[in-house]
Structure formats: C-alpha cells, structure tokens
C-alpha cells in the first residue's frame, strides 16, 4: 500500500503505531512511504517511528522520494540536492534491517521526461553514494514518463548496484478511465484487459533480459482523484483482474493509496471500501 504517513502534514499529524498494526493485520505486506520534503530532523524522527513500527509488525517499509526540484529542472544543482538527501537518509538507516528498501525517485515527470540520460546519470550517482553506507540494501530505480514499463529498456543499470536492485514501474497510478484510450476500463472487455496484460508482458520481458526483478509501485482501483465515477462493483472487477494478473506474473505491487481505504483519524477501515480492499488483499 502506498501511504501518506510522511508525505503530507495531515499524514504526519495523524500517523500512529496503530496504523502499522492494522495494516499488517489486514493482510498488507509492505508500505511505500512517500516523501516530498527536505530530510529535516522532524521528518526523520517521524520516519524513524514509522519504520520501527513497520518492522515490529512485519510490514516491509519502502522509502520513496519525490525530488520535485530535480524533475522540474534536472540541472547539476538539483542533482546534488537529491544526492545529498539520499546520502543523509542512507547514513541514518545504514544499521537498520535490510527489510527496509530505498525507492530513489517517485515518477520521472515534467522536464525530466525529455532527458532520459539525466535520469540515468542521477541513478548512477545515487547508487554509488548509497552503497558507501548500505552495501546490500535493496534499491529501486524507475523509468521515465511516470515510470512507464514501455521505457524500462532505457534504464542503464548503475555500476554499483551490487546485485541488490529492483526496477519499479507504474500503471493506472491514478486509476482506470472510462474515456482515456491508454487506460480504458468500462466492462472489462478483452481489449481493456489486453492493455493491462501488455504492460505486464513488457516488464516480464525486461526482467528476463536483465535478470533484475520488477514491481509495480502504484496502481489505483478507481479514479478517486478524477471524478470517482466507478461504482464499488466496477472497482472490484478492475482490481480483481489487476491483482490476478500481477500475482500470476509474480510481480509485487503497491496500491494507491492508504487514505482511500483507511480513516487515519479514527484508526478504522472505511466500510464501503472493504469489498475493494478484500478483493486485493484476501
């Protein structure tokens, strides 16, 4: 599950250990903790608690960094900002369980979409830096155009990867659409299912070619941020097919996101979303 525990002011305010316990008890195996802000003392202290709570309750934590300045303008100064951020985080968690992993960049977008070479150069620098303190930490890299599997082939494998490397890709990260041909889902027709299967096939082919495992860092069962016009039954149909196909391919995934399923103020699951949650996690 993608979580906002460290991403937003509300997420940081309402996070407590009960959330990690509830997620684990409900069948969630890992959480992708997204971060947009500087690695300040307050942010890192909160992240310390979240990671410790995850490990205590059997959740695998993934730290994922947004790096907006770099995505908007991938110049040398902004590259160094990202290197400094990860250097600080890597040093802080160098003695933490290797069940914690590092997801280097949340979706290459904006100016970066036109500069795949800048993305590869960043990964080379980041992995080299992180390996100074975390020689066997799992590190995740992702391709451009919002981590589209069609661009996995452009990734250059960082020289210091040390065998502990995954590639992350996304599809339907903001949910399916009833009108957008690229992520169409209405009745679950053969064509609509093929759009899902084609992306999975691209990832499997790249895995076979490189020997590097992949996972899906974000997909959303409904278009919650864009009208939310899928019924619960329609969401269940879409989510069931996604879950079945990814599981059959042996590709782990993270669902976007926690606040759609879990009331963080009350520490309770949202009743009307339980059919969607259950078809994914049970």
From TrEMBL:
Coiled-coil ranges (or none): none
Keywords: Glycosidase, Hydrolase, Signal
Database matches in InterPro entries: GH, Glyco_hydro_5, Glycosyl_hydrolase_5
Keyword Coiled coil among UniProt keywords: no
Keyword Signal: yes
Entry-linked Pfam families: Cellulase
Domain of life: Bacteria
Record domain Glycoside hydrolase family: where: 10-244
PANTHER family (UniProt xref): ENDOGLUCANASE, GLUCAN ENDO-1,6-BETA-GLUCOSIDASE B
Family listed: Belongs to the glycosyl hydrolase 5 (cellulase A) family.
The name this protein goes by in its record: Cellulase family glycosylhydrolase
Taxonomic source organism: Yanshouia hominis
């Amino acid at each position: 599950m993608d979580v906002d525990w460290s991403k937003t002011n509300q997420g940081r305010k309402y996070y407590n250990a009960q959330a990690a316990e509830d997620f684990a008890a409900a069948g969630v195996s890992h959480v992708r903790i997204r971060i947009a802000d500087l690695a300040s003392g307050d942010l890192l202290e909160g992240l310390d608690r979240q990671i410790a709570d995850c490990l205590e309750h059997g959740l695998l934590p993934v730290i994922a960094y947004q790096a907006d300045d770099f995505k908007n303008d991938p110049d040398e100064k902004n590259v160094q900002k990202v290197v400094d951020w990860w250097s600080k985080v890597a040093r802080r968690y160098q003695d933490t369980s290797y069940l914690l992993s590092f997801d280097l960049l949340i979706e290459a977008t904006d100016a970066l979409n036109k500069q795949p070479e800048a993305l590869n150069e960043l990964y080379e620098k980041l992995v080299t830096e992180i390996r100074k303190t975390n020689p066997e930490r799992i590190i995740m890299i992702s391709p451009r155009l919002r981590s589209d599997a069609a661009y996995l082939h452009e990734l250059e494998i960082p020289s210091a990867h040390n065998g502990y490397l995954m590639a992350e890709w996304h599809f339907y990260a903001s949910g399916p659409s009833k009108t957008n041909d690229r992520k169409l889902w209405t009745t679950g027709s053969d064509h609509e299912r093929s759009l899902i299967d084609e992306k999975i096939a691209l990832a499997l082919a790249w895995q076979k070619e490189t020997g590097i495992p992949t996972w899906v860092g974000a997909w959303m069962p409904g278009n919650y941020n864009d009208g939310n016009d899928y019924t619960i039954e329609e969401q269940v149909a879409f989510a069931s097919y996604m879950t079945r196909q990814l599981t059959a391919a042996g590709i782990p995934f993270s669902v976007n996101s926690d606040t759609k399923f879990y009331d963080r103020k009350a520490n309770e699951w949202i009743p009307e979303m339980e059919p969607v949650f259950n078809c994914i996690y049970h």
